[in-house]
């Protein structure tokens, strides 16, 4: 499991749990300001190749029902060493 604390591109702070097993039931999004888990639906979880960084990126697309938007989470994670290089949470549709 990967645990992240980040701010999305709209300035909201979140704590995110991301499974390295690709089990969408284990993904959670905690709104730090509101102190609650958000109601989400995962559209997909996939592992992509990032040729610019010569690494793999875990990509998760989710619908957040609390604010009727779509978020994309990208995590550049080394699965061999279990270390996260960087990550980005982006609202792509409101």
Features:
single chain; 94 residues; mainly beta; 4-stranded antiparallel beta sheet; 8 strands; 0% helix
Explain briefly what this protein structure is:
This protein has 94 residues and is mostly beta strands.
DSSP strand count: 8
Please tell me the overall pLDDT.
Answer: 87
Determine Rg (CA atoms, Å).
Answer: 13 Å
The biggest beta sheet reads: 4 strands, antiparallel
Structural class: mainly beta
The DSSP helix count reads 0
Separation, N- and C-terminal Cα atoms: 28 Å
Blueprint (SSEs and pairs):
Layout: E1 2-7, E2 13-18, E3 28-31, E4 36-37, E5 40-50, E6 55-64, E7 69-78, E8 83-93
Antiparallel strand pairs: 1-2, 2-3, 3-4, 5-6, 6-7, 7-8
Plain-language structure description:
The protein is built from no helices and eight strands. The protein is an all-beta fold. The protein has a four-stranded antiparallel sheet, with no helix packed on it. A hairpin with a 4-residue loop joins strand 5 (40-50) and strand 6. It is globular and about 35 Å long. 12% of the residues are buried.
């Amino acid at each position: 499991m990967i645990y992240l604390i980040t701010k999305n591109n709209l300035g909201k702070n979140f704590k995110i749990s991301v499974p390295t097993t690709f089990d969408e039931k284990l993904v959670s999004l905690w709104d730090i300001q509101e102190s609650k888990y958000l109601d989400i639906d995962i559209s997909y979880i996939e592992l992509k190749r990032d040729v610019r960084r010569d690494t793999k990126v875990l990509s998760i697309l989710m619908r957040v029902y609390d604010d009727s938007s779509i978020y994309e989470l990208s995590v550049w994670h080394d699965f061999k060493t279990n270390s996260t290089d960087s990550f980005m949470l982006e609202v792509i549709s409101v």
